[in-house]
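Hello Y.,

Per our agreement to keep a running log of every chain we model this quarter, I'm adding this entry. I've kept the format consistent with earlier entries: sequence first, then predicted structure.
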Amino acid sequence: MSHREKANQEAFARLCASEPVLTDILPASDAVPGFARNIILTSGPTLPWASYVGGQRAAILGAAQFEGLAADAAQAEAKLAAGEIRVRGCQELGCVGSLAGVYSASMPVFVVRNAKFGNVAYCNMYEGTNHRRLNYGVYDEGVRERLLYINDVVAPVLGKAVRALGGIPLKPIMVHALHMGDDLHSRNTAASLLFARELYPALLRIAQKDREAVEKAVKAMTEDHYFFLRLSMAAAKSTADALAGLDGSSVVRAMAFNCRGFAIKVAGLGDEWFMGPHASVKAVLFAGHTQDEITWMGGESPITETIGLGGFAQAAAFALQKYQGGSAEDMVERNVALYRITTGEHTDFRIPYLQYRGVPTGIDIFKVLSTGVVPTMNIGIAGRDGGQIGAGTVQAPIECFQAAAAAYQKNLR
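Predicted structure for the entry above:
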């Protein structure tokens, strides 16, 4: 067995052995090392401020206003241009972001520790059911009020419950949810309810003193199937980061968008992002929207596919065919093809329809190039005027894998 094959087997073993545990919910500046008040995090490889465009730029401006760093968008623009407000990629600080992925200092984050390997990851909380959300490039009074509601009402109650329970292991919830129709990216219906069930004993005790706050927190958790996504993302990030610095491995450890393109990181190639163009997309749009409105404003939720979930578990979530298009047969065909580009079949995450076969796990850049099969991801679709306008599947551009393979081969010389 070659050095690369041994390293990839180790990467696969770490992906399977990881044990993500939710340990707390805290404001980002309290939880994340290095998160200063003048920092705004956003999805994908970090860009100069002038290079951010469209919804991702609008989301950064909105986060600056929400945090009180600027009185309006014009002042935020000036302060960002002057460097008084700094933009950094989420993953520079161990975070992961949905769509535009913006964080500001006061926003609460899920703190997830990999109990097996010790690394910690963070993801901020879901904003709610309204399609107009900051992470989709919208900032107005309604968005501000919903963000404050999360900060002031929902997060404190849930954080108190998590601490009272001494943390919540997430992997058992994720294993169970795959057996109940979730892919843990675009569908988290079962996982959200299973997570709420874990919290109920602590929430009942809190309700004895503040029933109204608990009722509001429970509603926020259960009114929409996306709530658990941010936990799934943090769990996936803490899992994938166990591969960082694994010498010789050609397994992908991160996949992300920014407004300029799609990128990957590879376990054995340090922290370098390998960029490509935007992914190709097939989408079902909400009523009143058209294909020409589709835009890219970032996104790091494909961290779930990185560890074998989302598009790599779509045959576990047939209900998604109505939400994002295609058929059950299409989903199975796409899912089965992904076994050709991965290192192994996950020992715990399994797909009932495929006779409980483990999900394809450990994307190998060289298998992508030799087969021509690229990762498939389930995502929400953003509109050029902001907000979510649909959902669909995207395929990663092969250029990222070509660039990563070239860098890998260069390192061997």
